[in-house]
Structures are given as structure tokens and as C-alpha cells.
Amino acid sequence: NQVVCMASIIEEEAYIDSDRAKIASVIYNRLAAGMRLQLDSTVIYALNGTAGEHLSTTDTQVQSPYNTYLNNGLPPGPISNPGLASLQAAAAPEQTSYMYYVLTSKDGSQTFCTTYDEFLAAKETYKQVFGVQ
């Protein structure tokens, strides 16, 4: 059940197949470190698809067991129907030290980061590329 739940998140978080195992790695690494997952896809699910193009801080405060910004661990169930590539990534994640990732290109490429400072720099790239304040 947990692998399917994780795969459903990977399905919604990944834009490029080659990123799926890295995203799985980040999820496993955060769980092992006791960090909240803080994944946008779970908030979008909690908001029943009513979120705008970019999540706001207010969006991340929605009260729901699916909101991984507020709740520890995986959500109580899947947030989508995962495909085979996401199931494989959840079952066999890449072995990395990545703790974060950020969408940084309009082609769907993500930047994977080990440190919070790297994450903040990647987030600035996201803002520049997508014109977000």
C-alpha cells in the first residue's frame, strides 16, 4: 500500500521519466530523516484541483490528512493512479543524498539538491523561469 501511495505522488510530481527514481529517492530520504514531505501534489489533491497554477502559502495550510506540508509521513492513500514507471521508481528508488527538488525548466526538468541552500538557489531559478514572485 505504501509503495502505491508513494508511486501516486511520483506520478504527479515527475514531468520527465528519468526524474522518477530521483524523486522517489527524495521521498525515502525525507521519510528516513523524519522530515515532512512538503509535496505540492498532495496539497493539490487536498484542494480537489482548485489550486492555481502555483501554490500559495495559504494553499499549503489547507487542513487535510493529505497535506504533507502539515502532516508527517505519507498521506493516508494514493493521490492518483500511478503508471508503471512510477511504481518501478517507488519500488527501486535511486540511491542519492538528495533531500529537495525544484522544477527549474519549462521542459519539465527538475533540479535535485542535497542542502537547503542549494534548494533556495534552485527555487530562485524556478521563480525566474516561471515569472513567480
Q: How would you characterize this protein structure?
A:
The chain is mainly alpha-helical and 133 residues long. Helix content is 42%, strand content 6%. Helix 1 (2-13) packs across helix 4. The radius of gyration is 14 Å and the shape is globular.
Helix-and-strand structural type: mainly alpha
Largest sheet: 2 strands, antiparallel
Termini separation (Å)? 38 Å
Mean pLDDT, to the nearest integer, reads: 95
Largest beta sheet: what is the strand line-up?
1-2
Low-confidence stretches: none
Query: What share of the residues lie within helices?
Result: 40-55%
Q: Could you list some keywords that capture this structure?
A:
42% helix; mainly alpha; 5 helices
SSE layout and pairings?
Layout lengths: L1 H12 L6 H14 L6 H7 L37 H8 L8 E4 L6 E4 L2 H15 L3
Antiparallel strand pairs: 1-2
In short:
This protein has 133 residues and is mainly alpha-helical. 42% of the residues lie in helices and 6% in strands. It has a two-stranded antiparallel sheet with strand order 1-2.
